[in-house]
Amino acid sequence: MGVNDPLPAPRLPVGLKVSVDVQRDQQPHHDARIEAHLRVEATPVGPVDEVPAAELAVVIALDVAAERREAAAAALATALRALPDGLSFTVLGGADENGAPTGCYPLRGGWASADTAQKRRAAFSTGRIAAAAGDRPPTGYPVWLATARALFGERPLPVRHLLLITDGSSQDESDETDLDDSALQSELRRCAGRFTADVLALGSDWDPAPLLAVVERLHGDPVDAPDRFGPAVTEAVRRIRRVRSPELPVSVTVRPVVRGVTLTENAPRGQVLEPVSRQEEPRRFDFPTRPWESGARDYLLTLHVDASTDPLGVLLQLATVSVGDSTAALLVRWLPPGVAVGAGTADGGRGTRTMNVAERMRAALACGYDALDPMSRGEAERQFGLAVRLADEIGATWVLDLVREVAEILDGPQGVVRVGPTVDHATVRLGRLHIGADHRLELPGRAPAEPVRCPDCRHPAGPSARYCIVCGRRF
């Protein structure tokens, strides 16, 4: 198996159900924007809850400065002793004089299979880990990723995962995230689909941008870990053992009138997914996403449609959405001019509106943190105020907790905040990292609510009604 081969199929079966909610009645336009609430529910099938450890390959890469090396080596030794038996693992730590990551364990060959003796020897070998050299250029995250990619090419197992533990010592100019052709972005494209990755960030001297780029493209988690990070490594291994399907993209197939497709995950995590198009199927877009575990995910699917030549008043299928063997259709009806647009959805469009608010809320948070570094107090207050107001609207209390770390909330519903004269930049970096973490967003359920009726005359009423319009009874 070569380094560019995709992941093998997993053994744990998973049941998937895809559903699409969209405002069915729409006004036609040459560039109509259609937004739909897409939900994918994953259900375990069978009695097994964890991937066998023998089906996992894990690269643990430790990148720390000299002042953190001793504590990090001790924490890594603790984590290695806790690895499950049968897991394939390799440990990288430090770099040689040429800037290439060096192998810490095993001493010969690329991989070891965890058992009592191997884990004991690996823990002892952490003393060989070299600190990042202050007198040489930093290694750069692309080099760590390329080394992991080469190692995983030698281990054809169903689940392959990188744990990058860093205090930011490796970062250099190659870690530019704003340029598509930067060394980091190019290497991430090579790694996508080959393995997943978590980042454990130690201390507070790291730049969150490249770390978030790694976990978003490789579908992992960003963690601000303590210096005693052993339990965080153990939890990361437990999480990847709960993966039931490493690679099942969300596939969207559209009619020729659809000119643009975007997909944003809103729950349990907020991130924009990058599509992969196929030359042989130009109207199909595959959106690689995180490995599938049990639970539901919610997405905002946006289509730009040229409806200028479509018929009016009939249901049209603009797209189909598939994950695995489950498929759902996106149907709309273009209304004649002057006809009022109705709700047309099971939840009245509340799910789509909530996801729109969540997307704007996360964007405002990110802009607020950007305004604090360098300090632009007025812009930061405006952006954080918007984030707080939107968070209050959808009940995202985690946003309020983040904002309180850098500003005082004077009026949440009105979005009034006050940033102090000084801001701790370490707190700003942690806040930016936390935006990409797993903050769950409660979205409306799919089943239509039981209609509200007057208890006396049984006349139907709206959900917010206080009096019956027929008999006048107070609810």
UniProtKB/TrEMBL annotation:
Kindly list the residue ranges recorded as spanning the membrane: none
- This chain belongs to the protein called VWFA domain-containing protein
Recite the lineage of the species.
Answer: Bacteria, Bacillati, Actinomycetota, Actinomycetes, Kitasatosporales
Question: Which Gene3D superfamilies does the UniProt record give?
Answer: 1.20.120.1690, 2.60.40.3670, von Willebrand factor, type A domain
**Which Pfam families does its entry note?**
VWA_3
**Positions of the VWFA domain:** 57-220
